[in-house]
Design brief:
Elements lengths: L6 H10 L4 H5 L5 H9 L6 H10 L14 H18 L3 H12 L11 H18 L7 H10 L17 H16 L3 H18 L3 H21 L3 H17 L6 H14 L6 H14 L3 H15 L7
Helix pairs in contact: 1-3, 5-6, 5-7, 6-7, 7-8, 7-9, 8-9, 9-10, 9-11, 10-11, 11-12, 11-13, 12-13, 13-14, 14-15
Length: 311
């Protein structure tokens, strides 16, 4: 069981934002438990504390005082290893590691935390499924089931009023992507706008906000572009670019700039779109993101009329 500090800070930021014990603890723990955590009389398990902190928009590790237990270190090291494998497109390796992760035990204490742990594992499973381009429609109910673990009365029309952890944000982005893949762009756009609204309303730490915020806005700019809502796409790209620069989330900048370049092309702004597209593609190449660079070179050639020399 971890020992934490920060209960007083949780209370401070919760009160400053007018957030009730019930709002913050919903789906995670009982409000009385949160009251004890804020007062320092109870130390929660790692999953419970992590979700509470994330819903306020903080990086939970900043609040840990004592070292993780051996089982917690094993779990999280493996968890982040699987995340890296998924990001690298090594889905078979990720699947094998995931089976080990599921069998890794952690002392959750009296309070539980099982549903948060289960949600984290479901995020990994769904990420693998999405990376393999498995049937999109079949993922909808699985994603919703994962969301109901911490929001038992989940309603996608009410997302703007929810306090969201990082995993919940990831799941909602997946749900939006599924709707887009199945042709329902309006639902895709609506969900992403509601996630943005929730983060604008509740997130305290702007650096941590940018972690899920910029990715959500990138997905939203993609969706708006496909829906031919180019003025809105430019506005979203500008907001996300500003956040990436201010908070040094620079890996998404080339993708956002390329999306903006495409939107500018379609509204007839030919003074800027070519410069942005070239800048974005060379940045991807410099970042050694050769697959993304190649994909955008093809788009630039076919849609924007920009010819690049062979890399």
């Amino acid at each position: 069981m971890i020992k934490v500090y920060g209960g007083a800070l949780i209370k401070k930021y919760r009160n400053e934002r007018g957030i009730t014990l019930k709002q913050l603890s919903k789906g995670i723990c009982h409000p009385t438990t949160l009251h004890r955590i804020e007062g320092g009389s109870q130390s929660p398990n790692v999953f419970t504390f992590m979700s509470l902190i994330q819903r306020l928009g903080f990086e939970s590790e900043k609040f840990f005082v004592s070292a993780f237990t051996k089982s917690e270190i094993t779990f999280f090291n493996l968890y982040y290893e699987i995340e890296a494998l998924i990001m690298g497109g090594k889905f078979d390796d990720a699947q094998s590691k995931l089976k080990i992760l599921e069998s890794t035990g952690i002392d959750l204490g009296k309070e539980g935390g099982e549903k948060i742990r289960e949600q984290m594992i479901m995020v990994l499973k769904l990420s693998i499924s999405q990376g393999r381009n498995e049937d999109a429609a079949s993922r909808i109910e699985t994603i919703k089931a994962a969301l109901t673990l911490t929001n038992s009365d989940f309603d996608e029309t009410e997302i703007s009023g929810y306090m969201l952890s990082y995993d919940e944000i990831a799941l909602l982005n997946m749900l939006a992507t599924v709707y887009g893949d199945t042709g329902d762009s309006e639902k895709e756009i609506a969900i992403l706008r509601r996630v943005k609204s929730s983060m604008d309303k509740y997130y305290v730490d702007k650096y941590e906000k940018s972690r899920g915020y910029a990715q959500t806005l990138l997905n939203l700019s993609n969706a708006l572009g496909f829906a031919e809502r180019h003025e809105e796409a430019i506005e979203i790209c500008d907001t996300a670019i500003k956040y990436c620069v201010e908070h040094k989330r620079l890996h998404l900048l080339p993708h956002l700039k390329f999306n903006k370049a495409c939107a500018l092309f379609y509204i007839g702004n030919k003074d800027e779109y070519e410069r942005l597209a070239i800048e974005a593609i060379y940045a991807l190449r410099n970042n050694e993101d050769y697959i993304a660079a190649k994909e955008r070179i093809e788009i630039a050639k076919e849609r924007l009329g920009i010819i690049f020399p062979a890399f």
